[in-house]
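Hi R.,

As promised, here are both runs. First protein below:
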Amino acid sequence: MAKASRAAQALARSLREVLRRASDEGRIDNSIDDVLKWVQTARQGVDEVIEIPRGSRNFVRSREAPHFRRDDGAWFDFAITLRNGQIVAWSFELRFPDDWPDGPGWIRFDLNHPGHANDDRGLRCHIHLGSDDDGMSIPYEQRTPAEVLHLLIHDLRKTGRERGSPVITPA
């Protein structure tokens, strides 16, 4: 097997570091061994990929496939594609626990390959909120994979605070 490019190696290192810190802080339940075992580069034709679970995407959202588990019961996996040392596509999907019925069920952040049909609609980078239908996707500002991973681990969490009634003050 061909050796991974420097860019792919650097990306894998940065993702492992985000996940290692999250494991050390107790934000994910996975061990550092899971992180080291799963976050590796592999060749797929001309592309290099970092994919959790390895070798196939978890389109059916099965908990049986390898994934990272957050301390609050949410779980996620991701795939990143590089070509010629450049990131060309990624997908990060966070699934919420079944006992969070008021949420979207899952949220996915996608960066499609250049030339994808979503490109024509200005949606190469977008978010899906509980629906795989491309008509239900929302534009999203492109971020680095490490930034999206950090968002999934640390930021997209229940706070216990719910939207309150608007305050109306007399004129």
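And here is the second one, sequence first, then its structure tokens:
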Amino acid sequence: MATQWTPGPTVENRGAAFEFGDAHLIVPELTVDQAEELAEKIDEVQEPIEELADADRKDSARYRAYKAALRKRSLVAKEVISAALRNNYPDIPDGVVSKFVTVGNWATLFNSVMGYSGRQQVRETGEITQDAMSYSGRQKTGGAGEINPAAD
């Protein structure tokens, strides 16, 4: 049986708004204590992965190692994102977090919880505007999930 869970319209901590189905989740930055507790995982996500040259074949061992590193990075990032989400949604089921964090958005979410997103910070869904759902230009991620916050 699927767990039904709906986020409330107001949360305790300001954060970046992300669409999730018909609702929005307000994803806050990690607290300093969380960042310290998760430091090794954060470092693991931010560690550079050697880019592959276009000439590398998809069946090569190097390519498979690269893809495995990206998969592991996304799973570790999900743990960090989940910790931040629980600051606003302590009762959010793990299954909801798993549906929210995807291969297409984990790098953006990770940048947001680390304070790099450049998204407008909101506390209520009523504050969410089109501008709040777009980027201000501070966030920059490279290809293949590379985390690369731009300097202001």
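A quick note on the second one: The two ends are 47 Å apart (CA to CA). Let me know what you think.

Best,
J.
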